[in-house]
Write a structure and sequence with these properties.
Layout (H helix, E strand, L loop, with lengths): L2 E3 L9 H5 L4 E3 L5 E3 L8 H10 L5 E3 L2
Antiparallel strand pairs: 1-4, 2-3
GO molecular function: electron transfer activity; iron ion binding; iron-sulfur cluster binding
Protein name: Ferredoxin
Pfam families: Fer4_13 (PF13370)
Length: 62
């Protein structure tokens, strides 16, 4: 599954990158982005990142 980071809401704290670096990275604008699909073994870490985002900028894509 893939995640989407709302670039207008993201404050660039990097929490998601620290929690799931195989799925999130910081872009050139110092905002997080989901750059690759979450593997089944990463989904719990990604879900924790979704819940932990201080501005609720991350959501699962369907």
């Amino acid at each position: 599954m893939r995640v989407n980071v709302d670039q207008n809401a993201c404050i660039g704290c990097g929490l998601c990158v620290g929690m799931a670096p195989d799925v999130f990275r910081m872009n050139d604008d110092d905002k997080a982005e989901g750059y690759q699909d979450s593997a089944p073994e990463n989904e719990s870490m990604v879900q924790d990142a979704v819940r932990s985002c201080p501005v609720s900028a991350i959501e699962w894509e369907e």
